[in-house]
Amino acid sequence: MILGRGLVWLVVLLSTSWATAALYFDWPVASWRLPAALMYVLLVLLVLAISRLHWRGLLTAMVAFVSVLAWWLSLRPSNDRAWQPDVAQTAWAKIDGNQVTIHNFRNCDYRTETDYRSHWETKTVDVSQLRGVDIFITYWGSPWIAHPIVSFDFGDEGYVAMSIETRKEVGEDYSAIRGFFRYYELVYTIGDERDMVRLRTNYRKGEEVYLYHTRATPEQARSIFLDYLARANRMRDHPEWYNALTNNCTTNIAPHVAQSRGGRAVRWDWRILLNGKGDEMMYERGDLAGNLPFAELKQSAHINAAARKADNSLDFSRLIREGRPGFEIEQQAIQR
User: What is the pTM of this model?
Assistant: First the structure.
């Protein structure tokens, strides 16, 4: 009996806390967010006090929670907002046989992290020339949380980097807590490594970037690449909410990889969520090239110094890979 009542109170506490936060972060009129959250929590407390914690009061609190949840689920993402310049456009692709034309291919010119000029280009690649997949992993604080960027190697046609991110409006910053609510839309950014990687190594402070070559075959690389593009095309007309737990930069990679394996789901691992350990997970599964113990491979994968030295060189992508374990075959192919 006591355990049951305790469980009920825990559910009421958690649901009230979530509904209060949802109102605070997602109420459409910014100036009313704090008042709406305060009014909600005060109303629930008042009902519980008047009912003297009777079951009718608990039921009323749950009805209030369900009402907020229904409103929250009715919120719809949009592609029509005052976006920050670096996410002002959404990438999409036209596929004609092996020829893929990527529109809104991003190639920003940076002076500082926040002072830049956005360039949106059109890039055409031949998927029959796709040789492999590399992955960048960026840390900005905790070793448990990171941001992955997948890059596709098209040989002489260069690299196509893809980053799944929050699409921020003018004036917004990233907040891990807000990421659990319907505050940000999701965006598939497709662009040049000198933009997407150099931003993190050369301009942002306190970010450390690691680069690995994967063992994906050309066939698997093509499947993953085309599946990324299919998702980007869908999101052009059907925007999605970002969610830090269920719809983010890492959880979305798994379905793309599954597509390359005939639809077989990627085996669940806690490191998919705590993605700062994602490279360790990939190493244990045999997905990373480089015949070294993991600690040595990771040390050799750190590219910040090489990226700063390469800076705006047209050979940026080659220079950050030069001499790194796992890239030997690729470098031999370039030399030939």
Answer: 0.90
